[in-house]
Structure formats: C-alpha cells, structure tokens
Amino acid sequence: MSEPAPPLSVRPLSRAEHLAFVAGRPSVSHLQVPAWGEVKQEWRAEGLGWFTPDGHLAGAGLALLRPLPGLRRYLAYLPEGPVIDWFDTDLDRWLTPLLAHLKEQGAFSVRMGPPVVLRRWSADAVKAAVADPAARRLGDVEPTSYEPRAAEVAERLRRAGWRPSRQGGEDGFAAGQPRHVFQVPLAGRTLEDVHRGLNQQWRRNIKKAEQAGVKVVRGGREDLPVFHELYRETAERDRFLPRPLPYFERMWTALTAEHPDRMRLYLAHHDGEVLAAATLLTVGEHVWYSYGASTARRREVQPSNALQWRMLCDAHEEGAAVYDLRGITDTLEESDPLLGLLRFKSGTGGEAVEYLGEWDHPLNRLLHKALDLYLGRR
C-alpha cells in the first residue's frame, strides 16, 4: 500500500518565488503571472503558493480579489488557474487549504478556471461541423480526441462542493474566460508543415498580401495609440465595448517589465497606413493572440492574414509549442455573428479546444446567491 501524499499548506508567495515557479514550467496562463495583478487594478492581487511540510513549492496561483461595495468581503478569482496537479486523486489536499486561506482574506466566494483540456476537434472536424445543418453546437459533434481524466476532475470538484460558473464578462463582478479556444500546435512541426496546414483561402490571402506590399512590423509602447484607434473602429463595427487606451498602456508597462517579450505589438502597413494591428502575449512555450484590430479600408490586401502569419512565424522561430488564438463560439448557428470568427480561426489548420470551464465555491451562501442574482440581471 502506497504512502499517502503529504499535506499541503497555502501561503502568500513573493514575486521572485512566483516568477521562479512560472519559469520552471513549459506553460502557465498569462493570467496567472504576477504582472497580471498589476494590469487588473480594480482587483487586489495576491500570489499564492502550495507548500509541502518540508517547504517545497508544489503549486502556485494568482488570486484576484474584488470587493463588494461598502463591505470588506471579496469575490476571489483565479483565472485559468491555479497551477497545481489537477489529476491528483486527492484533489481536496490542494483545494481545501486554498479555500481556507481565501476565507481568512474575507472571500465570500471563490471562482477558478482549471487549465484542464476536456476535448479537441481538428480543423477538418470543425469545418464539417459548420457545414452540418444538424449540428447546433460544437459539443454535438464527435471530438477528434478526448481526455477521460478531465471528467474525473469535474466529478472530484462536484463532490467537494464546487459548481460550474454562470459565465459572464471579465469586468465588474462578472469574471469569465472562454471555455472554447482555437489553438495551432507548433511543437514538432516545421514552418512548412504549419503553412501546409493552412486552408487554401488562408494561403491565397497571405500571398495576396505579400504581392500587394503589406509589411508587418513589431511596434513599441509609442505605437499603442495607433493600435487603439483601429481597435476603437473594430469595436464600433463589431458592436462591443472597447477598453480605454490606458488599459493597454498599463498592460505594456506591467508585462514587459516582468519579461521584455511578455507582450508584443504587431502592425500591418500598406502604402504608409496601418491597416491592422494585434497584441501578442508569451509565457514559456505558449503564445496567445490577445487583442486584434483592423480598419474596413483596403481589406482586399488582406492585412489580417499577413499579421497572423507573421506572428505565427515568430512564435515558431522562438520555439513555441502552441499558438493560441483564444476564444471561439461553440454555437454553429448561421445566425451567430461569431461564426465568421470561428471560420477565420479554423483556417489556420489548428484545433478547437474545450477546457473544463470555470467553477465556483460559495463560502458565504447568502452573498454568493446575491452575486448570482446580480449577474443574472446583467
């Protein structure tokens, strides 16, 4: 009979400890690095560590705490984290001390996003699903691969009192990251392999941009206002609420201070004008396309395809294992305005990836219920 695993305790981490832990892993979400706490100024951030009795650091996370108006009570949120052994059969030894620590900090509810993949669909499977009138959602379609241990994690969470979150936006008290994302695997592939994986339309558009003279360059903090003008135009066109310029300036300052390549800005130029721009985030071997922006002018020169291809090439050259295009809709209805974005991203030849989603644990059921009602009205 094997020895039981040692108990774990949770305590605040120093920035240096937290960064050393992140550096020792191939992939940690950009939402779980210390600098992200400086980006989210409306939340109080705390780095947390899981320690064995002999002082070994076994796990880490960034907890964001948002106060209720007029009360010293907080919603605690660990976006796309924490970074622990999610497949430990004794998951309680990780989560029980986390809840105890956050309750001491005044948290009335805890939300987290286990970085555990449930299912994957290849680009061909996504294309077939979009074309199938009987398929309403991605989940209706047979996945290309499935992680059986993810269902076991979900069952352990339910037994411990966790429940799937009511999804919401990232601002205010609503906190939510996409459950479905689109990723291009790069590990073990040559750049020629990646190019061959693009669909015909993507390859054609990249060539068209090259022939038209579109040039993609890396920008700096001084170029953020140019990016933001395009971003505001994109927000108006696609009907979403844009973030203000100071948000992106704060992102740049905090993330690049932590690591010079943590955040990048790319600009697609044509005939002296910037037609498209995007921000890119990197932690270890994982690269994320973060925010994109473009003008409606001169779309025929395909600046967005040129921009993505340059970022993919740079990610591949630097040894990234994954190029992550972030959120996609799981709805396959033609009426869904986000279906076009799914088609665009699936043209990269990557795969749709479903994570386990976000989970809530109420520590004060009355306040948690009040928050739920508030989010339901929004």
TrEMBL record:
GO terms for molecular function: aminoacyltransferase activity. One of its GO terms (biological process) is cell wall organization. Pfam families: FemAB. Gene3D superfamilies: 3.40.630.30. The keyword Ion transport does not apply. InterPro entries: Acyl_CoA_acyltransferase (IPR016181), FEMABX (IPR003447), PG_Glycine_Bridge_Synth (IPR050644). SUPFAM superfamilies: Acyl-CoA N-acyltransferases (Nat) (SSF55729). Keywords: Acyltransferase, Cell shape, Cell wall biogenesis/degradation, Peptidoglycan synthesis, Transferase. The keyword Transferase applies. Belongs to the FemABX family. This is Peptidoglycan bridge formation protein FemAB. It comes from Streptomyces longwoodensis.
